[in-house]
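User: Quick sanity check before I run a bigger batch. Here is a single chain. Can you write out its predicted 3D structure?
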Amino acid sequence: MKKHLLLPVFVLLLLSCNPKKENVSLSLSDKLDSLLVQEFGVGGPGGAVLIMKNNSTIFSRGYGLADLETKELITPKTLFNLASISKTFVANGILLLQQNGKLSVEDNLIKYFPDFKNKKIGEKIKIKHLLTHTSGLPDNREVGKDTVFYLSAKDAENWAPELKVDSLEFEPGTNYHYSNPAFNGLALIIEKVSGQKWQDFISENIFKPSGMNTSTITDGPYPSSGISHCYVKIQNEWKQDDYGEEPTFAAAGNGGVWSSLEELALYERAIRSATFLNEASITDSQIPKNDFPVRDLSSLENQTWNIGWSWFISKTEDGLKLVGHAGTQGGFYANYISIPEKKILFVLLSNFPADREKISTRVMAWLKEENYLDTKKK
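Assistant: Done. Predicted structure follows.
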């Protein structure tokens, strides 16, 4: 079953490091390299980390093996499954259709799914509620009872159980419950409105203008070349845990995008430069939509977040906005954190259950030490 972990790096809010150095130095690269060698290890699965300031790459390296059978090395070009970071692409696809006057986030679901068993439920829930995990729809999928079916079930099959719900967990917009099926539904809305496979819509309207030429989206089996497989350790032995082993992996709307360090840097640049969405849509996507605290006990028990259009938003102790998303699917672990005011991007991709929180926290603390998070500097 797909899992998620929301921006564990927000532990940065608890840090109080004093800036020490004016410019990034080789010592930062050395510290990063030492940490990542320790955390990713050698001879097994590993990961890749990128730090970008403005349009310049400060750090970009891969560690470990993309495939334990072929011994292919992980590089900044290796494609990883992005897990829930994929949701940001679906959300941006919805916003693009809204920008073009094709739909509105205020539309209710009956407009797109008239076959809701309970029409009143379909009328209450709007697109904006799916985007912010505030629909109140329970996850109605019985994955545990039919794991074989869900090994290959795609978006439509994962969304269908939601159309049969008899009651909501809460009134739409009044509370929060992270929802993977919501994004399967959003992907299907893109198809209904655009008249094409949602994977093709994202490829043509986001990947292509951003220059993400090797990025792809699952539509059935995972891509066959240039990718990393993911692994989990069972009885001290690495076992592959992705498509065909992990139920719901084939459902793409909530976790089907595959990309690399290099191309996620291009994605961030395209967002900053309003390449595929206009500035108003981008700004709107990064404005909190909830007026109640959001907590996720699988991350930091006492940490709260705000939610934009799929992005999770918080602030550093110095008031800098953090915009990002994390993701977990099978053995893939990922983190994507942008600091728009400083034009800094941090990306972590791994093909095993790496200690994402530890790495992210160390990286952000070191960036602060190097004055990259100094609010007095532009």
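The first strand starts at residue 47 and ends at 53.

User: Great, the batch can go ahead then.
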